[in-house]
């Protein structure tokens, strides 16, 4: 399958770039080459050195000992006998002629002409060049190199310019290395196989093709790595080497139709690549727009958090003042309740005293109770004033809390849009990735066909297509990319990294001015864009970012409602505190008046000479009756209520402190969030700019080149194919018979007896 190894891609340009790399690597998978016979002339003993080498070369070319040419043909096998340095000694031509009836005639001719491909063999021992005759019996590190020169060339006109084209000879060289002499064998442009106690080394080259294929795109030459030499290194002991054999043939491309070589497949692939790149670029623009919206919303969020923190701090101060005032009010209520009891007892005593005609002492006792009651009222008034002040601070704090929560809600609404922005960008990025991956799969499929030796994809059988697809699936390359499977894009990236040299050559084929390595990096970036978005979303999800935002949003609703209810309650509390303060002052003033009056009464009670039932006594009776009720149903209940109010002071203070601490932490975290969003937006901008540059500097030039410089490459390849087809005789045809020619080189061995 050597001929199929030469042009395995549907795109001719791609196949030329990768030809050199595939020649040696795919040698073990070659298929049959018709029209040649390299071994039918000479009878060889089974297991001999010549037989083993011939079989190895035959396996590489997959030829048989039976002619496969049709009747009325002329087949030439040219034997070139060289010394150990590759110099020609003589040439023998064995000619096989088949007439129209299938009868065969064998002729043998000596020729003084030179072979179209000549060789030079050089030897080195421990890094120093040495003559072959001096190498026999030596030990050390040996290097043997075969250099080939293609002397068979012709001039053709391509694109209006004269160009020299070498006949595409394939040169295969084989040698047998006994393992008791050779060890640690390595080859360049060849391969090694084990046959019994021997190592068989086979090299494969195409001399002269590299110069012919010195293709240029936009006046820049492509450095195609097409092998022109075969080299072997080994550790040897008592060096000796039997003869080596080489086969040269030009007809590996004989059955190829040059007219079938077109740019259609490449154009389709490039068009698909262009569409994918455009979609990727559009996706990055959408992503950047979303991150910019998020970035724009951050200031509102941070401002809201600042206001929330300020309001929480004010609320804390107000709650502390309120708690302190409530405590003072409770202490006043205790004093009021005690003094009210004294007052009620004094009224009772006054009433009983008056009733028992003990007016003087009773009035004095009542006057004292009134004085104590006035003092308690003063304490109550001070506590109520303190509570009123705290209630005012509560109102201020509640207003600041409501304002902060409103600003926080606005900022939170902007932040929660991140998830939807990412989700909106994903479909575009997914579509771009799928097209890019399909283009990658097309290239990978073509390379798979190459490795199997199928040069024309359109003519492959269904079984062959399944075979290649199965090989790709085994390597983890699926035809339809599953963008949710992170391993899929990793397979593509790994494939590109593993085949960077061939990928670079493909890029340069289409765009010689491109920076191949940078373009590969940009292509990898394009393939990983969608996964990067999903990883970013998944990372935020795994970190609890979105869940945390949902919880914050739900908690915000609860806090906002609680703050509203708290504000309403505080407003009611403030109004009640105001009324209580007014009543307290009225009570204090009344009690002061009462105390003064009773003192006056106490002073004046001695002037009453007679006690009259139904006047003062009747009034004191009513007063006595209601004084107890006032103490039991009024001041005692007030004391109990204020006791319940102050019972939750510590909890209220603790909650206020926790709220203030929490908003302070939220304020600090909002700065970190703002920094992260800025970095995310900067990354999105960089990605967008990179995709735009990749599209303009890499993809667009490729689409332009396939219709310009690439045609020169196609015409050059056609000229090479034609040159190989036309070289079919060494002696020169003397009749109208179809011909073929194969060259067999026998290079002398090196022994101690030489």
Tell me what the structure shows.
The strands form four sheets. The chain has an eight-stranded mixed beta sheet with strand order 3-2-1-17-16-9-12-11, covered by helices on one side. The chain has a five-stranded antiparallel beta sheet with strand order 5-4-6-15-10. Among the domains are: 2-263 and 715-747, no CATH class; 296-418 and 547-647. The chain is an alpha+beta fold. The longest helix has 92 residues, at 264-355. The two termini are 39 Å apart. It is 60% helix and 16% strand. The chain has helices spanning 2-6, 12-25, 49-61, 132-135, 209-212, 264-355, 359-415, 417-452, 462-474, 486-498, 500-510, 516-542, 545-604, 616-647, 649-705, 710-726; strands at 73-82, 88-98, 104-111, 117-125, 128-130, 140-150, 153-158, 161-166, 170-178, 182-188, 190-195, 198-205, 216-217, 220-221, 229-236, 244-249, 738-747. It is rod-shaped, with a radius of gyration of 52 Å.
């Amino acid at each position: 399958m050597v001929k199929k190894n030469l042009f395995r891609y549907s795109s001719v340009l791609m196949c030329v770039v990768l030809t050199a790399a595939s020649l040696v690597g795919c040698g073990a998978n070659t298929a049959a080459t018709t029209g040649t016979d390299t071994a039918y002339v000479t009878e060889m003993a089974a297991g001999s050195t010549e037989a083993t080498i011939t079989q190895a070369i035959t396996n590489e070319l997959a030829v048989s000992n039976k002619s496969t040419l049709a009747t009325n043909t002329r087949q030439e096998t040219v034997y070139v006998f060289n010394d150990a340095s590759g110099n020609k000694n003589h040439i023998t031509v064995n000619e096989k002629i088949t007439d129209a009836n299938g009868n065969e005639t064998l002729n043998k001719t000596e020729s003084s002409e030179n072979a179209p491909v000549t060789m030079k063999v050089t030897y080195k021992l421990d890094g120093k060049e040495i003559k072959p005759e001096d190498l026999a019996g030596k030990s050390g590190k040996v290097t043997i190199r075969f250099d080939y020169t293609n002397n068979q060339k012709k001039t053709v006109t391509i694109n209006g310019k004269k160009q020299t084209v070498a006949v595409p000879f394939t040169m295969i060289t084989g040698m047998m290395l006994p393992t008791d002499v050779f060890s640690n064998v390595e080859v360049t442009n060849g391969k090694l196989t084990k046959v019994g106690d021997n190592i068989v080394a086979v090299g494969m080259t195409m001399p002269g093709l590299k110069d012919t294929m010195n293709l240029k795109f936009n006046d820049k030459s492509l450095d195609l790595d097409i092998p022109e030499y075969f080299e072997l290194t080994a550790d040897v002991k008592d060096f000796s080497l039997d003869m080596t054999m080489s086969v040269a043939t030009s007809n590996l491309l004989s059955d190829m139709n040059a007219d079938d070589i077109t740019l259609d497949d490449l154009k389709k692939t490039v068009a698909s690549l262009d569409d994918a790149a455009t979609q990727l670029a559009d996706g990055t623009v959408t992503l950047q727009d979303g991150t910019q919206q998020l970035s724009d919303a951050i200031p509102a969020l941070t401002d809201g958090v600042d206001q929330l923190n300020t309001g929480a701090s004010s609320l804390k101060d107000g709650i502390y003042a309120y708690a302190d005032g409530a405590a003072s009010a409770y202490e006043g209520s205790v004093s009021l309740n005690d003094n009210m009891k004294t007052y009620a007892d004094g009224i009772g005593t006054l009433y009983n005293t008056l009733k028992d005609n003990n007016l003087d002492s009773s009035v004095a006792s009542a006057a004292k109770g009134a004085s104590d009651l006035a003092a308690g009222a003063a304490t109550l008034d001070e506590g109520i004033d303190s509570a009123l002040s705290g209630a005012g601070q509560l109102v201020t704090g509640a207003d600041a809390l409501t304002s902060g929560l409103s600003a926080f809600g606005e900022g939170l609404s902007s932040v929660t849009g991140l998830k939807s922005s990412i989700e909106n960008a994903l479909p575009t990025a997914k579509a771009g990735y799928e097209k890019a991956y399909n283009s990658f799969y097309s290239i990978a499929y073509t390379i798979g066909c190459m490795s199997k030796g199928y040069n024309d994809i359109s003519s492959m059988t269904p079984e062959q297509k399944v075979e290649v697809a199965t090989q790709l699936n085994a390597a983890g390359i699926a035809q339809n990319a599953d963008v949710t499977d992170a391993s899929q894009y990793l397979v593509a990236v790994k494939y590109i990294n593993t085949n960077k040299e061939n990928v670079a050559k493909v890029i340069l084929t289409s765009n010689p001015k491109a920076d191949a390595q940078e373009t590969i990096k940009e292509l990898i970036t394009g393939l990983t864009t969608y996964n990067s978005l999903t990883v970013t979303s998944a990372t935020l999800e795994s970190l609890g970012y979105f869940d945390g935002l949902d919880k914050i949003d739900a908690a915000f609703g609860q806090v906002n409602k609680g703050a509203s209810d708290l504000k309403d309650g505080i407003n009611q509390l403030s109004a009640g505190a105001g009324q209580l303060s007014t009543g307290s002052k009225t009570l204090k003033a009344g009690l002061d008046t009462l105390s003064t009056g009773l003192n006056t009464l106490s002073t004046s009670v001695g002037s009453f000479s007679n006690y009259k039932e139904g006047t003062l006594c009747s009034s004191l009776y009513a007063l006595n009756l209601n004084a107890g009720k006032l103490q039991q149903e009024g001041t005692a209940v007030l004391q109990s209520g204020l006791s319940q109010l102050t019972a939750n002071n510590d909890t209220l203070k603790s909650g206020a402190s926790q709220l203030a601490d929490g908003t302070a932490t939220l304020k600090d975290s909002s700065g970190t969030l703002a920094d992260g969003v800025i970095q995310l937006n900067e990354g999105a901008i960089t990605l967008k700019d990179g995709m735009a540059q990749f599209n303009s500097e890499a993809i667009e030039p490729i689409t332009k080149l396939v219709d310009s410089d690439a045609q020169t490459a196609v015409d050059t390849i056609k000229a090479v194919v034609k040159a190989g087809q036309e070289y079919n005789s060494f002696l020169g045809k003397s009749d109208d018979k179809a011909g073929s020619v194969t060259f067999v080189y026998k290079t002398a061995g090196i022994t101690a007896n030489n």
